[in-house]
Design brief:
This protein is mainly α and 185 residues long. The chain is built from eight helices and no strands. Pfam families: Sigma70_r2, Sigma70_r4_2.
Length: 185
């Protein structure tokens, strides 16, 4: 059987003729598509789909020509379809990833705002001297010794007031370990 006879037989539904053409062209087509994909497995997949299309469209075959050019065209078009599909998927995944990041940033921003408000409430609820000392130290960056001199109290009193403030803050944020880590590092 030659290729022309195989095309005629295949048009009449002869699976053996299809197998004959498959055996002739399969490895050649895989090698051809692999020059584009650089991936043998992907190339085999593309060529297999090309042969499925070849069988499905057997009625369109020209009985006077070798199916070689037609098979190569189908395989190449399948490769192009695969590339387009991959680019679409990549773009979609990029959009999903970007949206997830935006959502995460918004969630983090909202959570941070809630923590800041809660911290303000806790600090505002501290006794006046304790509140003044923690604001001076943690917000303004004043050292214990300078706070003691400025307020006319001992460094031990400053330490004691800071301990009270930290205890109340720890109680208020006992579920929020990340903030405690940042605050007390």
């Amino acid at each position: 059987m030659n290729e022309i006879e195989a095309v005629i037989a295949m048009k009449n539904g002869d699976r053996c003729a299809f197998k004959y053409l498959f055996n002739i062209y399969y490895n050649r087509l895989v090698a051809y598509i692999a020059t584009y994909t650089n991936d043998k497995i992907q190339s085999e997949d593309i060529v297999q789909h090309a042969f499925i299309r070849f069988w499905e469209d057997k009625s369109k075959l020209d009985e006077t020509k070798s199916p070689k050019a037609y098979l190569y065209a189908i395989a190449y078009n399948r490769y192009i379809d695969t590339v387009k599909k991959a680019k679409k998927q990549e773009k979609l995944l990029g959009q999903i990833w970007e949206r997830a990041l935006v959502d995460r940033i918004q969630e983090d921003s909202d959570a941070l705002e809630e923590r800041i408000q809660k911290m303000k409430q806790v600090i505002d609820s501290l006794p006046p001297k304790c509140k003044e000392i923690i604001v001076l130290n943690k917000i303004q960056g004043v050292k214990y010794k300078e706070i003691a001199d400025q307020m006319g109290i001992s460094v031990k009193t400053v330490e004691s007031q800071m301990r009270i403030a930290f205890t109340k803050i720890r109680e208020a944020f006992k579920e929020d370990y990340a903030l405690l880590f940042l605050l007390f590092k």
